[in-house]
Design goal:
five-stranded antiparallel β-sheet; about 25% strand; alpha+beta; 14 strands; about 25% helix
Length: about 280
């Protein structure tokens, strides 16, 4: 899609080069959504690629994912053997059901900032206790857990001019056992429910519900719950108004699938037999 209202493209190379944000500006990273439809309200693009942020970095405490890291770069990350949750990376990347062109262009940060319920990078980073670093428009930084960053369907905690810099995943989260479940109405359709569970060495269970809900919902159980306790917790935590509705699934069906997939995850991680 040609954006024929754009009159300027800025190419900052450092944070100090970032222009003052004005109405009509937009950040440009992968641009897969930006160039997919008319953006008649925009007059300037601020291209982030010249900032040359390292796509991925592993430190002693966390995996740092730059907002400009592409899906193909993330999927190609060689993971240490003790990252038991590493399969989630590939599983969530493939939940895009996108072409190789999109994989090589779309970014992790762009998926978070779009804040669609079915955003699989939201699912991945929320489930692994990811924390966003945001460069504030007025200066300084803010750190927000991914699960709190997304607040609704295409809504998040960014203010005009704020920039998502990176997402940090604690190594401890990557070392937990995990289980993944995803379902769509169509064989290659958008996720209608995407749930991820993880179990640490002390037996604490975490369940992250996305796609079926308008925002990520995290449930934590210090001790392994039985099927009834899990179902009760989901019903109490996810009220009916939190279930998303669109052509990819009605709320009652999404609720049913959330409960079903959650029990499958519980059974897989705890070695139980689902009812």
């Amino acid at each position: 899609m040609d954006l024929n209202t754009i009159t300027a493209v800025a190419h900052p190379q450092t944070r100090g080069d970032l222009p003052v944000w004005t109405p009509g500006d937009a950040w440009l990273a992968g641009g897969t959504w930006l160039f997919s439809e008319p953006q008649v309200h925009l007059t300037r693009l601020i291209d982030l690629t010249d900032l040359k942020w390292p796509a991925l970095a592993i430190t002693e405490s966390h995996l740092a994912i730059a907002a400009t890291c592409t899906i193909s770069q993330l999927d190609a990350l060689p993971c240490p053997a003790d990252w038991l949750a590493a399969p989630l990376i590939s599983q969530c990347c493939r939940a895009f059901l996108a072409s190789f062109k999109i994989w090589k262009t779309a970014t992790v940060g762009g998926n978070l900032c779009m804040s669609l319920p079915a955003g699989p990078m939201i699912s991945l980073t929320a489930a692994l206790d990811g924390v966003c670093t945001i460069w504030k428009a007025g200066g300084g930084e803010q750190r927000i857990p991914v699960a709190e960053f997304v607040t609704g369907n295409q809504r998040n905690r960014l203010s005009p001019g704020d920039l998502l810099r990176q997402i940090d995943i604690p190594l401890a989260a990557l070392k937990r056992r995990s289980a993944f479940r995803q379902i769509s109405l169509a064989l290659v359709g958008r996720s209608a429910a995407l749930l991820i569970g993880s179990l640490d060495g002390a037996g604490a269970l975490k369940l992250t519900v996305t796609a079926s809900t308008v925002r990520p919902v995290l449930l934590s159980f210090p001790k392994p719950p039985d099927a009834a306790a899990l179902r009760t917790a989901i019903s109490e935590e996810i009220t009916d108004d939190l279930y998303h509705t669109d052509i990819h699934g009605k709320p009652l069906w999404r609720k049913h699938m959330t409960l079903r997939l959650a029990e499958e995850i519980r059974a897989e991680l705890l070695g139980a037999t689902p009812p």
